[in-house]
Amino acid sequence: MVAAVTSCIAIDEFSPKQRTQIENYLNKNELEYTITADSAYVHLAGNKYLEDGDERGRWAQVGSKVVFNFEAYTFASAPATTPYYTNKRYLAEEISADLNTQYWDFEPREVILGDGEILSSLEDALVGSLRGDSLAVFLTSSLAYGASGMGAVPANTAVMIVLTVEDVQE
Question: Is residue 73 assigned to a domain?
Answer without folding.
Answer: yes
